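Q: I have 384 residues here and want to know how they pack in 3D. Can you give me a structure?
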Amino acid sequence: MRRLVTLVSVLVFVDTTLFAALTPLLGRFAHELHLSTATAGVLVAAYAAGALLGSLPGGVTAARLGPRRAVLAGLALMGVASLGFAWSESFGQLLAARLVQGAGSGFTWAGSFAWLMAAAPRERRGALIGTAMGAAVVGALAGPIVGSAAALLGRGGVFTAVAALSALLGVVTVSIPSRAPESPSAGAMRRAVRNDVFIGGLGLLALASLLSGVVAVLAPLELTHHGWGPAAIGAVWLIAAAIEAAQSPLIGRLSDRHGPLAPVRYALMAGAAASLALIVGLAPLPYTLAIVAASIAFGILFTPAFALIADGADRVGLAQGMAFGMMNVAWALGAIAGPAGAGVLADATGEGVPFALALLGCLACFGVIARRSRAPLARTQMGG
């Protein structure tokens, strides 16, 4: 079990590193390739669009062929895409590389979390998800460092090394015994889309990725406009991710003990307050503090969402591979709508409107949870 947890943690670490590596490079790409805010948002969203394309195929592969094969397919796509990103010289090439990276992510996440949930005791799922998500957050922390290093040392060498790491992880994956393939069921899928716990988890995950995407595209561009370089912008995300990584296992244990929605309420209120601060038009230093607060608050939502998805799948007999394939779909839809929509709105109206919508999203979700506070969804306990 320990080897599997370590492997899953490393896989999601590498994946989120690649996703976040664009952040400090975005301002440079916008300058060198003459990108508008909307076009920059499309580039950020491309990774999620690729994940959307790979999500259900990844889930089907994990369920029918086994999670290990899904992980290996994802690593192969990740390696090829990293080489493409390393040597891309145009917006179209960068866009294609990010799409393929995202498709690899769809396979890797579906396979790795299906593998982990099939092996994990139900009463420890929240803690194990928290451990893996902590590694994912460390990857989000490392991503800006990798992006900053690529800005200083050159993308070619840095992302070619990432491609080599993908091959090495494939060798490690083969060495760990895999669970037998599951049997996807159309009936279980129909039950899942009518199950409050499962759908609640998907909705919460989509909201979390949407809100994170809004911050990911608008904040770096705003700081670039204030004269901040890739290293300084990367440092902001480094601080936020370090705090989030430390708290993810704690959020997982809190979810196990008190139900997945216990930490969600606090995160939504903190996210609403941070969004309100970002609407105001702060000076750079307080603006960065609000960015850190928003990133932490939105990041808290992921672990409870994963726990709800896994528990809901168990309740209706849905194969975990398919459950986490659908998880990738929910994440990708939010991660596409967040940065792409925020970029278009910011071009048309200024960045205050996207952050105002983020504020309303937090408050609306909090209201839904409050109305259902006496329903089984709100009382759900992992292992109960």
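Q: Anything worth noting?
A: The first helix runs from residue 2 to 20. Confidence is low (pLDDT under 50) at residues 376-384.
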